Amino acid sequence: MAEQVTDHPDRKRYEIDVDGVRGGFVQYQRSSTELALIHTETDPQFRGRGLGGHLIAAVLDEARNQGLAVLPYCPFARRFIADHHEYLDLVPAGHRAEFGL
Fold this sequence. Notes:
With 101 residues, the chain is of the alpha+beta class. It has three helices and five strands; from the N terminus they run ββββαβαα. The model has no long low-confidence stretch (mean pLDDT 96). β2 (13-18) and β3 form a beta hairpin.
């Protein structure tokens, strides 16, 4: 399964394709210092394969590379960060309680 994550700023979302088929997306709002993750959706045909986690991890890695703080309004992204503490530092300390992190 070949996965490709691409940022589409015109649509304000990252999309993941699997073997050329759209598998899901993360909707976001971006400022010069923050990336707010609003909604994550995975196509039903790909659910249960970890695709959503791969997508969120790629988005968080990209945020880190760009020096952006992350605000995980999306419940899926929030749970992913809670389960993967290596990403917790991306959420500003002053906002962690707001997200239950």
